[in-house]
Amino acid sequence: MVDRIIFTSSLLFSAKEFIAVWLAFKIAVQWKRWYDKDDLGKARASFHIFLIGASLSLMYGVVGGLLVKWLNQADYMSAIAFPLALIAFNLYGIWYANINITVKSKSNGRNTGGEESQSAGK
């Protein structure tokens, strides 16, 4: 939430370089967690979650800043189309993630069930 406010405000006040500074700060804070050599899967998941979250926050912040600009210029078509496209993009991402989770959980369930029936028959 703070990210989107900072990104939108930076665009509105023409201080775009602050976006880079903020992202660099966030990366510096997370850096050590991404190099956890003991649990590479956890480190990779943490990095991907950060990357997706920062990207979405940046997109919403940019669209928020542009939305104010478009409304001031009475460009209502852009003010409606771009936020709706961003929402559609997010809904597609959620749908796609749910499909992948469902497919993976079903395939893991089949493997486990097969192993149990083989063990029970011995």
What is the topology?
Blueprint: H1 2-12, H2 17-34, H3 40-72, H4 76-121
Helix pairs in contact: 1-2, 1-3, 2-3, 3-4
Can you put this structure into words, describing what you see?
- The protein has one domain.
- It is mainly α.
- Helix 1 runs antiparallel to helix 2, helix 1 packs across helix 3 and helix 3 runs antiparallel to helix 4.
- Helix content is 89%, strand content 0%.
- It contains four helices and no strands.
The amount of beta strand, in percent, is: under 5%
Distance separating the two termini: 56 Å
Low-confidence segments, given as residue ranges, are: 111-122
* Gyration radius from CA atoms, angstroms: 21 Å
Total number of helices: 4
> Based on CA inertia axes, which overall geometry fits?
flat
Helix content: over 70%
Which structural category do the helix and sheet elements fall into?
mainly alpha
Mean pLDDT: 83
Q: In total, how many beta strands?
A: 0
How many strands, which pairing sense, and closed or not: the largest β-sheet? none
> What is the count of distinct domains?
1
Q: What string, H for helix and E for strand, traces the elements in order?
A: HHHH
